[in-house]
Amino acid sequence: MTVQPLLRVGPVRRFTRNLLCPVDLLGRPLLLKYTRDPAEAREEIRGRTRLARHYRVPTLHAHLRVPGGHLLAYERLAGGTDKGLLLDLLNADEPSSDLHTYMDRLTAAYREVILATAWPTDPAHVVRKLYWDRAAPGGRLDTYYAGKDFLIADRLIDVPVSRLDTYTLNINGRRHHLDWAATLRWLRAHFAKAEPVWAALTQGDPTDVNLAHPLAWFDYDTAGLNSIPGEFANFLWYASTLGGWLVPTYNPTAFADHPATFAHIPANAPELRRADIDHTTSTIHIDYTPRLSAPRRTALTAYWNQLVQPVADRLWPGANLANLLCPYLAMRILGVYNLADLAPKDRLVLLARLAEAMSPTFDPTTYFCPLESPCPAP
To answer: Based on the structure, what is the number of domains in the chain?
Structure first.
């Protein structure tokens, strides 16, 4: 007869400022989450309660204060190495039938809840963490960039970012213009407006590590009434850029249980092919080839066609989706990682992506490349 231990503790993993640890207690699988910020823990508990009325979320068995923070004990859903997340369906060479089914269920669930709970909402009453707080005085835009300057790309384009407005950007053969200081001012002003925004009940941070497979939602400190364009921009930017390239590159410890992620970085990392300056015409030439794996293209296509477009047709008929998404996308580009901390080539590509997003010709359907065929090289 095999005696099961009363307590079995798995490896501790760090996700941003939080720690996660799988535990088996008296045969019950739990996931312990340690959060240092008591206010964040309270938001997590409240957010989960709001979400549970409409979405599948793991049971919260207990929460208690512990030295230095707050401990939450959740039901641990089935998973393992390279199993249990949307991420694992994306870490493949080709899209599977499971991925197609998953995206059908995900977009159907979101479409139903968003359309049922959507309402023009005072910005003071939406979840502010990912957008409004980061644009506010003392937020991430200030912490990262206020009073600071850095080179566009060390040893490639040795021009300070503050002087970008004095150059024409030729990006993949198209002319763009980007005024760094004006962009920061515009974002601060945009998220200081008091006019209502369309908001709905969502988890707020729909990344491929916050979405379980089979379908469930994790991480609730941004759950509640979220800006709908912000929700869309978050998923689109994470699925197309952060999840397959930047986050595993700069925060690899978060993927210790999903090592297949690293094998797929080359399929999702853009290739910088040219970076130089023509001083006679004050033109910076940047040529890069976007890359996106077939499973990520499939997920983005389904998300756009089955969620973004139908919701937009109902809430903003005839509106320009590019204008709705642009400020949120720019905040995701600038407010997740400090661009000055990134490798020069990565920084340059993101500045190019920011310029493209701020362009009058910005087209989300090509920008995020939600196509079944590979993204064409320029």
So the answer is: 2
